[in-house]
Write a structure and sequence with these properties.
The protein is mainly alpha-helical. The chain has one domain. The protein has helices at residues 2-38, 44-47, 53-64, 70-82, 87-99, 102-111, 114-138, 141-151, 160-164, 174-179, 181-215, 218-224, 230-248, 255-265, 269-277, 283-293, 295-322, 343-364, 367-373, 378-383.
């Protein structure tokens, strides 16, 4: 009976968090669909030929304009690398795709507060600077050539179908593109494809966050995060945050609910940011790196990404502390007692109506057939 009660508590918390962020998810993915509908993937490889400051800044912008799905970001990074993009630029694009997107910021604001979203965006440049320094210092030409040979084998990972889909409307002013028939169709398709890409991560993140909140005693987290020593906790948080992420298996925007639970449980401000950054080094994605670029490069990416993510988060920890922007209260929204008639419910109803309209257009314009092709091998999709 006690076990059943614990299970019910975990599901209750997971649903409550889902209800809290539902409108933000729909809004974020709809906004992402609009951006993807007017930004073509076809030009990305040509625009990222080197690792100059200008190119890397452009890589950040292109990444921010793409899908937030970690698996799709990894697959797209390999695709543009195979087409001639510089490896460092491709990796920077990948980082921006999961850390500088609008839907992530919206959900962080809803669950945790604007300070966390601001820190996520402010810390990303620091993380990228550290990563680029490590690449320039330790990444050799033979390693890149070996990675390219492995990448050219085209070994499938996950979400290659999402990468191959490019429905962007490139002609005319942006508003006209969005309002055109092709633009509206593209938005609806990208909206649904993004949901299909990340729903497992969102569901897994919510369930894991609910279980952690319901089952793990607060004393365990306080001891684990060294909360008895404030200075040591600030240094320890960015180190341990990515470790928790690696073994949580949760990526994309699905890691934000768990980040909220960890914040309430005592992890440092920088530890939260490092945890969210680390969605690109969870165990399933490390295995995809091995398939895409070989075992040696997979280990290299794990080590350099880890150092960059921890370092960037540590920098932002002390910068935000100095500016007085770190919240003093640990009151991230984890659960409400029940669904109530409040602004959250009103927003959910409005955006569910938006989602229904996008789904209606998706089904009317051949969306299901495209969906069936998403996870086929590239040659099968191209033949079709």
């Amino acid at each position: 009976m006690e076990f059943t009660t614990h299970i019910a508590q975990a599901f209750h918390m997971a649903f409550a968090m889902f209800w809290e962020i539902l409108w933000a998810l729909i809004f974020g993915f709809a906004l992402s669909g609009v951006v993807q509908a007017v930004v073509s993937k076809a030009e990305m490889s040509r625009l990222l030929p080197d690792d100059s400051a200008k190119t890397l800044t452009l890589a950040c912008g292109l990444g921010a304009a793409s899908s937030s799905c970690s698996y799709a970001a990894v697959a797209l990074a390999r695709s543009i690398f195979r087409k001639g993009a510089h490896f460092t630029a491709a990796m920077v694009f990948e980082l921006a795709s999961t850390n500088l997107v609008a839907e992530l910021a919206i959900i962080m604001i809803v669950l945790m507060g604007w300070q966390f979203a601001a820190a996520e965006f402010a810390g990303a440049p620091a993380m990228i600077v550290i990563l680029v320094f490590l690449f320039r210092r330790f990444l050799t030409r033979p390693m890149i050539e070996a990675a390219r040979r492995q990448a050219d084998k085209g070994i499938p990972g996950i979400m290659e179908g999402h990468v191959d889909m490019d429905m962007a409307v490139a002609e005319g002013p942006i508003l006209r593109r969005i309002l055109s028939e092709r633009g509206q169709t593209a938005i609806s398709h990208y909206f649904v494809m993004d949901w299909v890409s990340v729903w497992k991560d969102i569901a897994g993140g919510l369930l894991l966050a609910g279980a952690v909140a319901a089952w793990v005693p607060p004393d365990f987290w306080r001891a684990f995060f060294l909360t008895s020593d404030p200075l040591l906790a600030k240094l320890w948080g960015p180190i341990v945050g990515p470790l928790v992420a690696i073994f949580s298996f949760v990526c994309s925007v699905g890691n934000v609910p768990l980040a909220a639970v960890l914040w309430n449980s005592g992890i440092s401000f920088g530890g939260v940011i490092a945890f969210i950054y680390a969605d690109l080094i969870v165990i399933p994605i490390l295995d995809i790196y091995r398939k895409y670029y070989g075992g040696r490069m997979a280990w290299f990416l794990l080590v350099t990404f880890y150092i960059a993510m921890s370092g960037g988060a540590l920098v932002i920890e002390f910068v935000f502390q100095a500016l007085g922007l770190v919240p003093r209260e640990r009151q991230a929204t984890v659960v409400e007692a029940a669904v109530r008639w409040n602004y959250t419910t009103i927003l959910n109803i409005i955006f569910l109506a938006v989602a229904a309209m996008l789904l209606w257009r998706f089904f009317r314009t051949g969306g299901p057939a495209m969906l069936r092709m998403m996870n086929r091998r590239s040659e099968d999709r191209h033949a079709h």
